[in-house]
Amino acid sequence: MNFFKKIFFIFIFSNISTVYAKSAPDSFADLAEQLMPSVVNISTTQTVKTSNNPFPFQFPPGSPFGEMFKDFEQQPRERKASALGSGFIIKEDGVVITNNHVIADAEDIVVRVGDKEYKAKLVGADPYMDIAVLKMETKDKFKPVKFGDSDLARVGDWAVAIGNPFGLGGTVTAGIISARNRDINLTRYDDFIQTDASINQGNSGGPLFNLKGEVIGINTAILGQSGSIGIGFAIPANAASNVIDQLIEFGETKRGWLGVRIQEVTKEIADVEKLKKPEGALVASVGENSPADRAGIKAGDIILEFDGKKIGTMRTLPKVVANTKVGKSVQLKIWRNKKLITKRLVLGRLESSEEFKEKKSKIVKKEKEIETLKITVRDITSEDISSRKLAKNTTGAVIVEMANRSPLINLLSVDDIIIEVQKKPIKKSSDLNKIVDEIFKKGEKTLLLTVINKNNRRRYLGVKIN
């Protein structure tokens, strides 16, 4: 009897050891050899217009020197800029997946497969999830790869990245999945897979594989600008597949739209609302004539469940809504006045909503760096006023760039408009520089900014500058 007990114990212990101590693969060579023909290098070209001022200053309007030196005025010059990235083939007729930022504004796209180069055209792109679909202009047949189920990928699983880092091409790196569901505030639908497989500039758009040779992610971002530091991010295959299918079928995306502005449910808000814990998405406002508005959803409601899916945090709701079919009738569970109620609505399409439609100004905008605030701004234009539906007399400085060292880094963002400082109106960006400098010369360290954020809402912001 003791003998059988001993055998039983050894059997159980052996199984446990197998589960928790899987051996590392001896080599990735067979996998790399199988997958390399499906991974491509992508190069693009575009025309960039630049202008060089021969003087280290500019003559003021109306200056007689302007007429004297008009022959030396800055003339716009054109130059060709190129970019490199990666991609992978998903159909044998030459359909390629990459990142939108790899091919954005490109005039020519060239895809290199092994030793051959092919011109490619854009089938469709989605800047919101940073995905683009290309089609090589050839009748050649290629070896495609398949998407795997990224939901099955676990932290600690092996991952293999293949791409074109620094233009070197055909580079294989391996590591593990370091984390899941990462939100790095890169897109409105952040849900990245984090990996320590080396990913560098040029890897963008390339595939992240599991050991079965299935694509579980699209390599998109790295932490740090100097190169890989063991923290890279990939768009999960399951989320990407839905977008890719739409781009191939329609040439554009068709995302679900609810029509609400939301914010985080903090511990304090949960306490006041008598929720057991901070969860859900708090409705800050409801768009006029939106699906939410027609269903009777109100500001102050807390959405706890959408179409049978729990809304754990505010960031969960946009992802769930976007992945739900347009026109579907869905049920929402809402916390209102300390009670749970249900609402049903028919989901709209985000791309058809007013909040989605943004017009890009075609006017070249002069930019000014505000050194003390570590930001770059430009004057507000009539295009801004028209496209954002602002009051016609609106003036101010539009933020176009913000350094990581800026004291405003977590308070304001690009496209916010600073309209007042210390309640003094900003007519143009030079006024902002002048007023801020005057404040600092007086020894004051606190600024009161009046801003119109990118959602066109006016707010005041007190900022202490060290």
Can you put this structure into words, describing what you see?
- It contains ten helices and 27 strands.
- It is of the alpha+beta class.
- Among the domains are: 150-250, Trypsin-like serine proteases (Thrombin, subunit H), CATH 2.40.10.10; 257-352, Pdz3 Domain (Roll), CATH 2.30.42; 367-464, Pdz3 Domain.
- Strands 21, 22, 23, 24, 25, 26 and 27 form a seven-stranded antiparallel beta sheet that branches. A six-stranded antiparallel β-barrel has the order 1-2-3-6-5-4. It has a six-stranded antiparallel barrel with strand order 7-8-9-12-11-10.
- The longest helix is centred in the first third of the chain and has 19 residues, at 2-20.
- The radius of gyration is 27 Å and the shape is globular.
Concise synopsis of the structure shown:
The protein is of the alpha+beta class. The protein has helices spanning 2-20, 29-35, 64-68, 100-103, 237-250, 267-272, 291-295, 316-322, 382-387, 429-441; strands spanning 39-51, 76-91, 95-98, 108-113, 116-126, 131-136, 158-163, 171-182, 192-195, 207-209, 215-222, 232-236, 256-257, 260-264, 281-286, 302-306, 309-310, 329-336, 339-346, 348-349, 367-370, 375-379, 397-402, 417-421, 424-425, 446-452, 458-464. It is globular.
Observed structural traits:
single chain, 466 residues, alpha+beta, Thrombin, subunit H, Pdz3 Domain, seven-stranded antiparallel sheet, six-stranded antiparallel β-barrel, 27 strands, 36% strand, globular
The largest pleated sheet is described as: 7 strands, antiparallel
CATH architecture of the domain at 150-250: Beta Barrel
Residues in helix, %: 10-25%
Coarse shape: globular
Please, how many helices? 10
Which class best fits the helix and strand makeup? alpha+beta
Low-confidence stretches: 6-21, 358-364
CATH topology of the domain at 150-250: Thrombin, subunit H
How many whole angstroms does the radius of gyration measure? Answer: 27 Å
**Please, what is the average pLDDT?**
84
CATH superfamily name of the domain at 150-250? Trypsin-like serine proteases
Name of the top-level CATH class of the domain at 150-250: Mainly Beta
Number of strands: 27
C-alpha termini separation: 77 Å
Strand content: 35-45%
Query: Oligomerization state of this entry?
Result: single chain
